[in-house]
Design brief:
With about 290 residues, the protein is of the alpha/beta class. It is built from ten helices and ten strands. The longest helix has 16 residues. It binds adenosine monophosphate. The site of adenosine monophosphate has 17 residues, from helix 2 and strand 5.
Length: about 290
Amino acid sequence: MEIIRSIVRMKRIAQRARSDGAVLGLVPTMGALHEGHFSLVRSAQDRGSSVVVSIFVNPRQFGPNEDLEKYPRSFESDCAALESLGVDYVFAPTPEEMYPEEFRTSVQVEGLSNKLEGRSRPDHFRGVTTVVLKLFEIVQPSFACFGRKDAQQLRIVEQMVADLNLSITIVSCPIVRSPDGLALSSRNAYLLAQERQAATVLYRALDRARRKIEAGERNVVPLIREVRETLAEKDLVTVDYAEIVAERIFEPVEQLKENCLLLVAALVGSTRLIDNARIEQRGDSFEVTV
Ligand code: AMP
């Protein structure tokens, strides 16, 4: 496994690999890797590709009062884990390499980027799409893997790829959870023991909504009430949003009539966590994946 710090070198290596006939798969991450990230790597490997994992804590997707400074960093153990998985390349540029002083450009997917996560975190998605487009251009992979854990990010990246006619397939991968249901996240490392325990309520809230939908509920108001009541069972949890939106446009719906997402964001103590469930129409019924 080769660790690459410079953009020029990453471009050169990727170009050489492509001309030698390799199919490149990219897995963009911010490091502090866990099973969620590893599942993306395996999914890329299953497609028979040479895998590039990028590790870059992207300053441009953090707001001024967010956790950029304290975001968990574990580069050595991340690389050891990726090496044992058989990853081919780790691309780990510095912020200065990615954003030299004269850097001026950003990419914004209009409409999708200012709601839900974007409402709570202005400029977050602009930072994400800008770095993802740079990574796509540097590596020029055939495909890139993203987790459904960050459902809005995934949708926005898909839209960017369509709008800009990028020749990259976006592969979406299921949410990986711990046995008690909590979605794996690098930010779970911030949780104190009591908060870690309380955080499982996000999963339980989604799961209760799932059961209600499977029992025939189609109205959004009682579903969201159930989610909020469940989240309210834990004093340490403060809801930011709980909404059901149409999957493609991320606009709220009143009734389940199409593929939707149930999205939640909450503070657990002072740690902000997000989670979601997919609500897929199957004929007259809906299948919910939490
Ligand atoms: P991050 O390092 O948090 O920016 O995440 C990098 C990629 O891993 C993104 O595509 C995430 O959606 C994905 N990811 C993070 N956590 C999970 C998880 N629990 N299950 C599946 N994918 C995940």
